[in-house]
Amino acid sequence: MERVISGIRPTGNLHLGNYFGAVKSFVKMQDEYDCMFFIADWHSLTTHPTPENIRNSVKTILSEYLACGIDPEKAPIYVQSDVKQVLELYLYLNMNAYLGELERVTSFKEKVRKQPDNVNAGLLTYPCLMAADILMHKADKVPVGKDQEQNMEMARLFARRFNRIYNVEYFKEPASFYFADKAVKVPGLDGTGKMGKSEGNCLYLCDDEKTVTKKIMRAVTDQGPTQLNQEKPEVIQNLFTLCELLSGKEAADYYNDQYNNMTIRYGDMKKQMAADANTLLAPIRERILAYSSDDALLDRIMRQGAEAASARAEKTIEEVREIIGFRKI
Ligand code: ADP
Ligand code: TRP
User: Fold this and answer.
1) Whose Cα sits closest to atom 20 in ligand 1?
2) Mean pLDDT in the chain?
3) What are the pLDDT digits (tens) for 128-143?
């Protein structure tokens, strides 16, 4: 059976971007593939969280994964830092990664721009750690959003390069997997770019009903079309993208016709989107509360996940050590 791995950094609550870009695929894939999902807490160290932050965010994201429908009986969920073998593979991959190519990664360049006072080595080698997560499991498919595509290309490059350097056919090149056949980029509620925690334009899975409605009703729009069949400006295109995700294609087509014949009322469209968002989120919200208050269950799930992931990781590391020329330990 094909293997699937994916993870998300625990840096806050999951939002609709994470859900439609990643977690929804996880839930779908667990029935068809040999899946493992993890919480990328080592990756979150690039922004120097406190111990308290780490503990809380790991628990939050685990509760949210479960609330979205990941079933640990089908797909083990583990915490990245519980599987220390990943660090060893990270070291080996670092030795074959070049400064120039790491500096060219767009998300690195963006971080340099956004946080010039904290351009640490972990940020630079982020793609190596991500590749270690993936190659460790010899994953065939990795469900991620569009923004991860460059990191995925790096993972494939590192797999090929390792095979070439050691003249083996050992690592497979992992494919990006998109739930909707094409990469999803969920726009933010401010009408610009992508929904993201650091962008401050998110609808969170744990937002209560009132907050969801308020956020959607306040989503940025314009004055409305001034000509028939007019091309949509970016903010409006983004609202339609969100509408299709929340309310379905039929609803989006319906409002699209209204846009084209200039009868659209954004307020009506948003009302429907808010209602559909709440229908989607109400049961998830309820389950988040239930899981996050059951520490014993969360602990058990993390322990079982760590066991499953470590067993696989240990096998890979033994093989990799042998390929590189290290003694068996
Ligand atoms: P954030 O941008 O809020 O920090 P992350 O970078 O932690 O979110 O993303 C975790 C996962 O969710 C990744 O697979 C990423 O591709 C996906 N994701 C995040 N935001 C979006 C979005 N707006 N659209 C599609 N996928 C997204
Ligand atoms: N870089 C991913 C993100 O920011 C998180 C991540 C780390 C990941 N390691 C991974 C995703 C391995 C998929 C596979 O969202």
Assistant:
1) 17
2) 95
3) 999 999 999 999 999 9
Residue range 21-32: average pLDDT?
A: 94
Cα of 21 from ligand 1 centre, angstroms:
6
User: How does pLDDT run across 151-202, given as a tens digit for each residue?
Assistant: 999 999 999 999 999 999 999 999 999 876 677 889 999 987 889 988 889 9
At residue 186, the 3 state secondary structure works out as coil
Ligand nearest to the CA of 199: 1
> What's the CA dihedral at 179, 7, 296, 70 to 10 degrees?
10
Residues 209-289, CATH architecture = Orthogonal Bundle (1.10)
Which pLDDT score, from 0 to 100, does residue 181 have? 65
130 lines ligand 2 (CB under 6 A): yes
Which ligand 1 atom is nearest residue 9's CA? 7
3-state helix, strand, coil in the chain (%, to 5): 60, 10, 30
Distant-in-sequence, close-in-space partners of 197: CB < 8 Å, separation ≥ 6:
11, 12, 15
Q: What does the domain layout of the chain look like in residue ranges?
A: 3-185+295-324, 209-289
Distance 150 CA to ligand 1 centre (A): 13
User: What distance in Å separates the CA atoms of residue 189 and residue 309, rounded to the nearest whole number?
Assistant: 37
From CA 233, how far away is CA 162, in angstroms rounded?
A: 45
Reply yes or no on whether 138 is catalytic. Answer: no
**What confidence tens digit (pLDDT) does each residue in 276-294 have?**
999 999 999 999 999 999 9
Q: Is 328 a catalytic residue?
A: no
Superfamily of chain region 3-185+295-324: HUPs (3.40.50.620)
Q: Which 3 state secondary structure label does DSSP give 7?
A: strand
